[in-house]
Amino acid sequence: MAAIRINLRKQLVRLHMSRRHAKAAGLIKSFVAMHQKVDEDMVKLDKELNQRLSIRVSRNIEPIDVSVEKAGAVVNVKLVKPAQEQKADDKKDKQKSKDTQKEKESANQTVKPAKAPEPPKPNPLKNEPKDKKVQNKT
Questions:
Q1: Interatomic CA distance for residues 8 and 27, integer angstroms
Q2: What residues are paired with 65 via a beta bridge?
Q3: pLDDT band at 83 (very low <50, low <70, confident <90, very high)
Q4: Burial code of 101-131, b = ≥16 C-beta within 10 A, e = fewer?
Q5: pLDDT, tens digit, for every residue of 88-137?
Q6: Sheet containing 74-79: which strands, arranged edge to edge?
Q7: 77: how many CB neighbours lie within 10 A of its CB?
Q8: Do residues 56 and 67 lie in contact, with contact meaning Cβ atoms separated by under 8 Å?
Q9: Measured distance CA(103)–CA(21) in Å, rounded
Q10: What is the DSSP letter of 7?
């Protein structure tokens, strides 16, 4: 298994956004076929790589890291996830497991009736009479 970084920017910059996906897939196949010394027909792209190409290539063109496995005459190309995406996926998995645990715990607990809120107490300072000012006429 070999990891390869493929830069598609030079070839895809001049193309319209709607045509970039097909061209990118063909470029990856030809690049891998050249390095593995096989026909382009024998190179198979992974579903995840194909989906990432449709998203990534249409917006911004960045180098793509792929892993290449040669099984007999067929060469399989898979997407290599960056470390940041793997960490994000791990966090999502942990969050999902925590959520499911909370749901199980809440399902096991009995529901207690809520208490009615107490009415506010009157403020004794507001009810006191105010001192009347005496005006001196001189």
A1: 8
A2: 5
A3: low
A4: eeeeeeeeeeeeeeeeeeeeeeeeeeeeeee
A5: 666 777 777 777 777 777 766 665 667 777 877 777 666 565 555 656 66
A6: 2-6, 64-71, 74-79, 43-45
A7: 24
A8: no
A9: 41
A10: -
Encode 22-60 in three state secondary structure: HHHHHHHHHHHHHHHCCCHHHEEECHHHHHHHHHHHHHC
Domains of the chain, earliest start first: 2-80 (3.10.440.10)
**pLDDT value at 25 more than 80:** yes
Contacts of 32 (CB under 8 A, 6+ apart): 4, 43, 66, 68, 75, 77
SS3 category, 125? coil
pTM for the complete prediction? Answer: 0.59
